[in-house]
Amino acid sequence: MISIFRKKQKWAGKLDLTNLPRHIAIIMDGNGRWATRRGLPRSAGHAAGAENFRTIATHCKDIGVEFLTVYAFSTENWRRPEEEVSAIMGLLEKYLGEALEKMERDRIKMKFFGEIEALPERLYALARRTEEIGARYEGFQVNICINYGGRDEIIRATKSYAEDFAAGEALELSEEQFSSRLFSAGVPEPELLIRPGGEKRLSNFLLWQAAYAELYFSDVLWPDFGTEQLERAISWFQGRNRRFGGVTK
Ligand code: FPP
User: Fold this and answer.
1) Cα→Cα distances 148→104, 166, 175, 200, Å
2) Closest ligand 1 atom to the C-alpha of 52?
3) Nearest residue (CA) to ligand 1, atom 7
C-alpha cells in the first residue's frame, strides 16, 4: 500500500542520534535538470522529486528528526509555464490526498507555510483538512511551503503587528513577538538547511528563521538526494561548531 511515508527503513547507524538537528529545512532544487538530462519533460522531474520527498520525510521521522520544512512552491514559481505549475499543483494534490488517507496510521502533523488561500480550491481544501487532522497528533511535523516567500512572510508579519499596534494594543516589538506572527509560529528555527541542485543561495526561503542555520549545499539534484545524502548532510552538521555569535568554549 502506498503511504506518504514509506515503510520503516533500516537505520544506517553512522550518525550520533543524540546530536540530531531538531529541524531540517530543504530547498528541493534540481528536478527540471534531472528530467532534462534523461530526455523527460520537467513534470517527470517534479514527480521524481515528490517521490524523493516521501523517502526523505520517512527517513527523518525514523531517525528522530522532529521537524522537516520543504520548499515546494515559491511566490515566484507562478512565473513558470502554466503546464508546469499545474503539474506541481497536481502532484501536491496527489501526495496530500495520500497523506490524508494514511494520517490515522502515520500520526504526522502537517502544516503549510505560505498564502495557501490562493491555491486551486481542491488543493486548498486538502491542505486545510490535513492541517486540521494533524493538529491532533504530537510528534514528527512536516511543514510544506507552498506559495511561500520569505520576504512576503516578513511583510505579512509586519502588517499584522502594525494593525494591532494601530488598534491600541500595547505591544513590545521583540524577536519572540515578531516570530509569533510568521507562518512558522511555534516551530523552532531550522538548525540545518540543505540545498541540493548546485546553487548556493536561499532563494527567499525562511529568511528570518534561517538566521543561525548551518547551510549545506550539494551538487546532487533533488530526485537523487536520497537517504545516504541526507545522512552525509547530518553528519557534516554534527561536525560544525555552532557559536551563535559567541566564542568557542
Ligand atoms: C525546484 O526544481 C523544484 C520545484 C520548484 C518544485 C518542487 C515540487 C515538488 C518536489 C513536488 C511536490 C512536493 C511535495 C512536497 C509532494 P527546479 O524545477 O527549479 O529544477 P531546475 O533548477 O533543475 O530547473
Assistant:
1) 27, 27, 21, 19
2) 10
3) 72
Q: What is the mean pLDDT of residues 227-249?
A: 86
Boundaries of every domain in the chain: 23-151+188-238
Compute, in angstroms, the gap from residue 173 CA to the centroid of ligand 1: 36
Ligand 1 centroid to Cα of residue 92, in Å, is 11
How far apart CA 59 and CA 122 sit, in angstroms, is 29
What's phi and psi for 158, nearest 5 deg?
-65, -45
Condensed to tens digits (0 to 9), the pLDDT of residues 42-70 reads 999 999 999 999 999 999 999 999 999 99
Would you say the CB of residue 144 lies under 6 angstroms from ligand 1? yes
Its pTM stands at 0.92
Which CATH fold topology does 23-151+188-238 show?
A: Undecaprenyl pyrophosphate synthetase (3.40.1180)
**pLDDT classification of 13: cutoffs 50, 70, 90:** low
| Per-residue confidence band for 2, with pLDDT thresholds at 50, 70 and 90 | very low
Closest CA to 113 of 79, 75, 84, 81: 75
